[in-house]
User: Which sequence fits this backbone?
């Protein structure tokens, strides 16, 4: 493995701001390019499994791919990778169509963090020349919402960026809240960036619909979610014997708070 290849792989598997579907597509593109190097190919799958297994769509993808590798069937692996590249992109079109059927008059939408699925859907929304105004909560401490805002304004979409704590002010003014998903549990609960649960509770209080957009590949056969913790220094790197700083990146939203999960 060259240093350049290692850096590229590390950049993909250590990505803390992109959505899980986008990370999957980046990893998939990388694996397509290194199919001829079987050692690099197998190493990349192993390293990705270590760092990305918390994302349901990527974990399912890697589990399937690993079975193919165990069989040493690299022709089958190529076919699988090529299929992922084409079918994932088609899913966004179908999710968009289903969303518009569900919300034909929605114009003002609030969301949080950064979702590759939402980015693709909002781009399609813009292409269809439908009126759209987004309110995006910045999503501390990694500020993924800022990154999504930058991408969407450069697509000509009107966005207002707010802090997570300002959401209660804005929800009464929007038509709906729409979020992405990192995983959908067997019981219908959704795992997404922390701050999503607050939005769901606020929607219930203000009687606003709360939608989740997710590909079916993010559905997992689990009913319980184990909380993970990230580096607390990203929240505050101040140390004191009386201080505990927490950084919990994902949380669970109960099914009863969700109006509908829209898939392809």
Assistant:
């Amino acid at each position: 493995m060259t240093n350049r290849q290692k850096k590229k792989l590390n950049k993909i598997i250590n990505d803390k701001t992109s959505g899980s579907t986008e990370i999957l597509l980046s990893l998939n593109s990388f694996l397509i390019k290194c199919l001829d190097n079987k050692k690099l190919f197998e190493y990349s799958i192993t390293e990705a499994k270590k760092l990305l297994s918390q994302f349901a769509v990527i974990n399912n993808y890697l589990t399937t791919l690993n079975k193919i590798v165990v069989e040493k069937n690299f022709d089958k692996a190529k076919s699988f990778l090529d299929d992922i590249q084409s079918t994932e992109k088609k899913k966004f079109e179908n999710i968009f169509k289903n969303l518009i059927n569900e919300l034909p008059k929605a114009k003002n939408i609030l969301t949080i963090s950064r979702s590759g699925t939402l980015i693709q859907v909002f781009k399609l929304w813009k292409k269809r020349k439908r009126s759209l105004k987004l309110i995006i909560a910045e999503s501390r401490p990694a500020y993924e919402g800022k990154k999504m805002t930058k991408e969407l304004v450069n697509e000509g979409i009107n966005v207002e960026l707010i802090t997570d704590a300002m959401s209660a002010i804005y929800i009464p003014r929007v038509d709906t809240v729409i979020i992405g998903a990192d995983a959908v549990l067997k019981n219908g609960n959704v795992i997404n960036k922390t701050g999503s649960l607050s939005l769901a509770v606020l929607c219930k209080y203000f009687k606003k619909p709360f939608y989740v957009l997710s590909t079916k590949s993010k559905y997992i056969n689990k009913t319980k979610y184990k909380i993970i913790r990230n580096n607390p220094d990203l929240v505050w790197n101040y140390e004191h014997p009386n201080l505990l700083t927490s950084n919990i990146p994902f949380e669970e939203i109960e099914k009863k708070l969700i109006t509908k999960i829209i898939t392809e």
Notes: The mean pLDDT is 93. Residues 92-262 form a domain with the Rossmann fold fold (CATH 3.40.50.10470).
